[in-house]
Amino acid sequence: MKRERKGEIWDFEHELPAGGGGGGGGEKLILGLDGGTSNTICVCMPIIPFTPNHSPPVYARAVAGCSNHNSVGETAARETLEQVMAEALLKSGCSRSAVRAVCLAVSGVNHPTDQQRILDWLSDIFASDVEFFVENDAVAALASGTMGKLHGCVLIAGTGTIAYGYTEDGREARASGAGPVLGDWGSGYGIAAKALTSVIRSYDGRGPETMLTCSILHQLQLSSPDELIGWTYADPSWARIANLVPVVISCAEAGDQVANDILLHAVQELASSVKAVVHRLGLCGKDGKASFPLVMVGNVLEANRRWDIGKEVIDCISKDFPGTHPVRPKVEPAVGAALLAWNYLIEQYQQEHSEVDYD
Hints:
5-stranded mixed sheet, Nucleotidyltransferase, domain 5, 12 helices, alpha/beta, 359 residues, single chain
């Protein structure tokens, strides 16, 4: 490797057999990373053929904390990313010399300058022949629902939210994803922040009474809404606030109007993000009825509650775009990131061999 960054992270490589390949056969590997505001996941996959109807093989999976540089800072984000890659390789019994490609999909990658900084950093960790792909985490989420093919739209709604779309000819567009300060109100953070605000407004006499007051205080083991101020600003991390979403849903299911209105507003926000992307890319076709995949990712959209936010979002979008085809991914976004790299390598291989055949 070019440089021994934080050598202790990679000390395990000295204990591996010569070659350090996965499965003992010296085969080449792909690292796929999905880095969000709540956690970061890295999977290690071999470069071998598999059928689309079956999940691709995964040698190892590692989990770490937040890697969004906008949330924790660039130094902490890089340390998290490097640690999770090293752990995945350690679990698979491989060294960096076995890696053929790395696809890193991280929230907070919003501009070519973000991509270039990470590419430069990756080139200091891995050998010069390793292929690197750096994308926003929404791209990996889309790929997780389309098995690595970039076409359609993805809606992520977890701690944060973003809608991201691709056309078959490579055009792309996004909506939301700018963080809570800039209005990602359909996100888990946005829902929970509105709930906390509603409790304070009710306590002040500026808003209606709400079941959210008792439920949130009970959840946080607080005795008065006054204590919410200290609780909130003691650690205003996005994920910590977003953990209150299940409380909001429970109150809405119990008939609380304030909680219900918060969720309805979130549905409209999430649906409007998808609609904006679909309009800009023309995914719906000229008549507005063309079919396109809508990949749904994130715990806010999980269909496990009576008040089903994901279903409401789909119903809202389908009124305008009847060709919407909802997809619940069978693999996680980290695998989607690996599949992006896998598809690129396969296409590269086929292109090189077709040129050889032609010659």
